[in-house]
User: Fold these one by one.
Assistant:
Number 1:
Amino acid sequence: MSNPSLLILPGDGIGPEVMAEVRRIIDWFGTRRGIVFDVSEDLVGGAAYDVHGTPLHDDTMTKAQEVDAVLLGAVGGPKYDVLDFSVKPERGLLRLRKEMDLYANLRPAQCFDALADFSSLKKDVVAGLDIMIVRELTSGVYFGEPRGIFTEGNERVGINTQRYTESEIARVARSAFELARRRGNKVCSMEKANVMESGILWREVVQKVRDEEYPDVDLSHMYADAGAMQLTRWPKQFDVIVTDNLFGDLLSDLAAMLTGSLGMLPSASLGAPMANGRPKALYEPVHGSAPDIAGQGKANPIACILSFAMALRYSFDLGAEADRLEAAVQKVLAEGVRTADLMQAEGGSPVSTTEMGDAILGALEASL
Ligand code: NAI
Ligand code: MG
């Protein structure tokens, strides 16, 4: 059997800086755990534009379709603000998401105990928190027709349409149930079936997929507004939450901020299963290219490192190794190792991007 394959797209700004630390971690898994990836690296965003005149070369797109998983840093920067919309760095990322048809966006909210003080919620509400929001990403009200601003009589009307087909609901539900089986085996589906027909269909289809294909997974339903309340009141009641594009946009941002800083947040976008049974997958930190700190060695590499941990768990079935990597991050944070973005008023001196990488590698080594 060939090695699992990874395409690495560092991108712009702090993208290459944080990705350099991930590369060291990938190498560590190869030499110390015998888990060897076929890694290829290519350009995306402004870095690709500088060389090819396009933010994503066709060859790179083809490669992305062929590998087991894509790991991306970040794209964009002030240098590219003047470019035409069609070749802006973000277009490279959007093309990847669209052509790979990545319909399930995964955003974890995980509390690293040493950072529990960062939360706006009480410590015991967030300590140990580990939930996953699955947001439908390619349909719903952001895409439905009709849409536009029209004139009706003597005033204008703005229209967007919430539209979901049964198959669109079923496939994102399957993503959520598959994830739940690798986690706490519990899914809560959120919609507004009380006031929206699309919500009635959503609830019905999710229940049917559960009953026919995932009878072992625990499923509950909640109205999305009640879900927002429950997320802030007692988030630990949830394991996996599955919801539509609009509610997911709001709920995933809300859930992410329960635990903390942009420099800590990973994400994944998954599509249909490939011939080998693995879903098409793109892993990336939630943050952007951070031009204000780029080139200064200040960036926190943890969001990108945790994105790789998600790849281990969800693309490569290496949950125990993902646990090992997450535990290493927990350990260095508990020891007080902090990049500048994780410093609070009490002071102390921050470590650099590379020093954070060193500390995590040290913790991995200590885990053997
Ligand atoms: P940003 O996420 O790049 O930065 C926001 C703030 O958070 C900045 O102060 C930055 O220094 C800080 N920050 C972000 N990541 C950090 C990390 N790992 N360690 C320490 N501090 C970190 O968002 P912003 O400033 O709105 O956008 C900057 C550029 O990035 C723009 O060109 C934007 O279009 C692009 N962008 C790209 C994204 C992507 O590639 N997925 C997502 C968001 C923005
Ligand atoms: Mg949002």
Number 2:
Amino acid sequence: MSPRLTGDETALWRAAAQVLDDNWTGCGTVPSPGLYPHQWSWDSAFISMGLARHRRDRAERELLSVFRGQWSDGLLPHIVFNSHVARHAYFPGPDLWRSRTIPGAPRDLDTSGLTQPPLHALAALRLHEFSADAERSRDFLARIYPPLAAQHGYLARHRDLGGAGLAAICHPWESGLDNSPVWDRPLAALDLPPLAYAPDRTRRNLPIGLVGEEHDRYVRLVVLLREARYHPGHLRDDHPFAAEDPLFNAVYLASAHALAEIAEITGHDPLPHRERAQRIHRALLDRLWDRESGCFRALDLRTGRLIPVVTAGAFGPLLDPDLPGPALRALVELLLSARFAGAAGYPVPTCDIQSACFDRGDYWRGPTWINTNWLLWLGATGHGLTVVADLLYGSTLRLVRQSGFREYFDPFDGTGRGSHDYSWSASLVLDLLG
Ligand code: 9WN
């Protein structure tokens, strides 16, 4: 804990640290005690950065343990299932994915067959930057470099479906922003045959908005992937959902830069990572920048069109250190406009407030989340946008002071929603407080 903290900040810091202690399972951290009882990939990356300020050894274990689930082709699954948790505690559990039947997937544990935004290299480098023991930290980087490089190799080899250097996602869950209105159209275009299972519409472990036909479509996409044995050829040629998302790719880009630095520190060749970062940078601008609306949008690879709705994902490329001035200025203008900053005093909501899809209470369709605001804060800080960064910093802390470490928040009055004691909300507050 930094000695510079005020009394009020110290109390907040302690409360956040307590959440992480309570959600620690012995080798990793659950996103939330009841709702998400396994280990999620990008959650662990966010969580490790808070742990770095609190329990350094756990921060490293958190990141390493998520890589236990990595497949031999480099795929880093978005869920690593805890075998001590009842199989029905979370749906979809291991029975939907059947990962152990797939050659190259781990034999000794169950995983999903999808990935999530590849934030891990960025997290690993941040752990190193805030380490008090440089030598030990270099050993950690040396250990985690090969799986990180394999993760990026997988994305470049098997997910560059558009051929320009971006990684495509094949399921809304891969975006991390599951029911974002961005995915409404591609999901609606999906054929939904009669279900082969009886959905439990009353399931308590599904967040609001995920119960119903939308969730059936999520499951349908998984069944298609599983039937194709998660084969890269299926993703390229047949899978009905394929999109290039600006937030996913901005995280990929920031992590590619981080990986180049890690390569240098650990005596590997940084050049391939730098070249990859350059390609992602170019492709983001060439393919996802929409000059007319002055922001980034997701590209539906199945229709070849940019998806019209503007969400918090549009600001993801603030994480690009080489973002050209005009694009940077346009993003800041949009961020501070009534469409995103209309919610006075609270951080950025997940959807354009003026869009017909906006819903202040529904998960990723409007509410404010700590992780997206932390990413924007990091991007703004990197560009020296101190006013924007300070706004995001102050309003994020205000939110958790008011409502605690909730999963998400009403963007107009800050009311907490979803699960309590949500790990990344706590962890990123530790990172902000420093
Ligand atoms: C599906 C764990 C995860 C986060 C995602 C968030 C939510 C899962 C769900 O919870 O997704 O992966 O059941 O809705 O959308 O970003 O990683 O916290």
